[in-house]
């Protein structure tokens, strides 16, 4: 029995353990955790919109978990909704302030968002420069600065927007948030009042109007505004809270001074004259402007002596610093009510007197001043104008001055200027007139020199007057003398650190500094664009580079800069920029421009490939189709080009496009078919005149002139001939040689070609030598060239030597050449020549050069040259001196540094300079060479080339120097 009970107990324990184990191994089925896990899974799949839906549920379920906001912020970042992303990440950072990962995410996304905002600001500033009357751009800049937290700048740009356009209700709501941040309550109140009339059914504007009037102490108006908002939208929390404040449902506290002075413990002091409490409080506040309890005491004293305006001024100061204090509202209401009562009494009194007699100057001045105190300048101006009508003959300069003041304060600049002009003509030395005229000039940003004179006149007599200090600071800002403006602001701050105008000056200085810098930088871009529009592309490039170095570049600007480089002939730089633009955002026109770069660089095969790709994308694009035809012609695929243009002509109806097609067909000439070969011959004609001169320090002078002619037999076969005449002049010898050769050129493929020629080399005494040449060449334009060539000629055409003039030596040459360029700027050239001469001499030389491109137009590298011959061909001249027939060195080598610089590169011409400097071990000598070369294209079918070179080397055991010059041209008919 006992054993049976033990077994039962063991079984129960086992079952309980298994049940507990199964519970512990069950996955967590908490719904909130499921939302989070599913959100992470969707993020990993790149489905960020769906992930946000799941994370919304998670955040709602667990609102105090920072990770939910962090993950959702990352999803918004991936969707480029950066503002929402920043808000989520800020929430996450508040919930978990010590989390480094969240802090890093917040910093990264904030920087990206701010960068985009600054870029957007720059774009809208550019649009403002084009059209300053479009309010939308000012609004967008204001929004950007609001998002950046730069509230004063945001307010200024919103102000500029409101000068140009009426705002929507949403924009007014945003604007009031900015005004509240900047504590510009009084400024916002009339704006909100106007917009409640414009949007009477918008409860948000009514609610904001309630808060602004409440902060200004207008409780009755505020209560009515809140009640109207709640009538339109019951239970609108913002309005409900505001109504509670107006009805006094907020908390209050009182302050009791529990200190007691024990005079018997203090040493006796000498009696001094009693200090009036108001003076004492003013003295304390001058040294401690943030001593709010003393300011409240000062207000009480001022009210006792009916100094209401002074008390109201102190209340306005407290409004900026202590408006959260419940006692403030009580004091504000007390002072404001007394002030309003006095103003109302005075207004009623003077209004009655003025109604009876509009010519009553005292009544007119008092009544207008009463309205001015309430900022109702329209009524103040109207009163004074009625007085002028009633008393036109009275002496009224004081009234005229008041009219000028109120008009200026009401921004009726023309009226104010008219009145001040009359006053200054009567009394040009009146310092008050000068001061207001100077202020008017500053406010209207005109006559700044006059403002400088008048304001400084007033400042010299009133150096502590804040109004003139503010005006002089504003004037200095308009002249962009920010140091001077800061100096005046500092002086004003020392006088009254709480003055709102002084605080605003500091903000304006920073804003104007930023704007001046932006204007300076943007002016660089404007100057660059003016040069661009004038076609002065090379001059525009440094300005574009300067601007882009000082500001964030965008895709449009980069595309514009690429166009400038293209038109300036900087094709490599243009290609690089177009590629960067396309990597940022694809644009068909940019892709087409990049293809045109290949065409302009001479890489016609690559250009054709790109044009064909673009044509497949937009088959009806005329620009692309005409570009394909140009590439076919550049590759000399004449029949393909003609067929292509004929097809275009059949399908085109636009007259301008037809004219362009017919122009290109005209360039091709008659069409080629096998049956019309004789009627269409030649397919094209190429003419190339040539002139060359050479001289050295052996008194040898060589002049060669002539040229070659080519005839296009077919699109792949070219024939022609060349003729050259050379004059040799050396001490005691003058001779003349001619060479004539027939040539043929065959293009097997777009990259592979062969050719050759046969002819005669004739001397003056009619000695003729057969000459011939042949080659096979493979070429990828602008990348790779490789060729093998054979040449049979007279040694005189290869070795420039005066001792070969009267001696005929034949030479056979086998040449191997290769060159390579890559987009990164690497450049390599190699050449090997094998010489076999009829005097039994044999020689060879090797040339190798490698380098790379630095900057945009500079190539620098290393060069090696080696040459050796079987023997040195010597003879003894008439004077018994041992001479060499031609330079045939043995184990000659040199090591050099070479460089090339594209001095000027335009679409019509380019100028290049270059050279090398090296060392020749054989003679322990220095090698140097230099050249300047220019190419000019006065028309698409004509190229003119000129080159001047000089060099200094070592041969024949002494210093050898030479000079050469050539000019050639190639014309296609």
Helix/strand layout:
Layout (H helix, E strand, L loop, with lengths): L1 H24 L5 H14 L3 H14 L4 H13 L3 H14 L4 H31 L4 H13 L3 H14 L4 H13 L3 H14 L4 H13 L3 H14 L4 H10 L30 H11 L4 H13 L3 H14 L4 H31 L4 H13 L3 H14 L6 H13 L3 H14 L4 H14 L3 H14 L4 H13 L3 H14 L4 H34 L3 H14 L4 H14 L2 H14 L3 H14 L2 H14 L4 H13 L3 H14 L3 H14 L8 H4 L4 E12 L4 E12 L4 E14 L2 E15 L4 E12 L4 E13 L3 E11 L15 E12 L4 E12 L4 E13 L3 E12 L4 E3 L5 E3 L7 E14 L3 E12 L4 E15 L2 E14 L2 E15 L1
Antiparallel strand pairs: 1-2, 1-18, 2-3, 3-4, 4-5, 5-6, 6-7, 7-8, 8-9, 9-10, 10-11, 11-14, 12-13, 14-15, 15-16, 16-17, 17-18
Helix pairs in contact: 2-3, 3-4, 4-5, 5-6, 6-7, 7-8, 8-9, 9-10, 9-11, 10-11, 11-12, 11-13, 12-13, 14-15, 15-16, 16-17, 17-18, 18-19, 19-20, 20-21, 21-22, 22-23, 22-24, 23-24, 24-25, 24-26, 25-26, 26-27, 27-28, 28-29, 29-30, 30-31, 31-32, 32-33, 32-34, 33-34
Verbal overview:
- The protein is an alpha+beta fold and 973 residues long.
- The protein has 35 helices and 18 strands.
- The strands form 2 sheets. The chain has a 16-stranded antiparallel β-barrel. The protein has a two-stranded antiparallel sheet with strand order 12-13.
- β15 (909-920) and β16 form a beta hairpin.
- α6 (100-130) packs antiparallel against α7, α7 runs antiparallel to α8 (151-164) and α33 packs antiparallel against α34 (655-668).
- The longest helix is centred in the middle third of the chain and has 34 residues, at 500-533.
- The radius of gyration is 46 Å and the shape is elongated.
- The N and C termini lie far apart (125 Å).
- The relative contact order is 0.03.
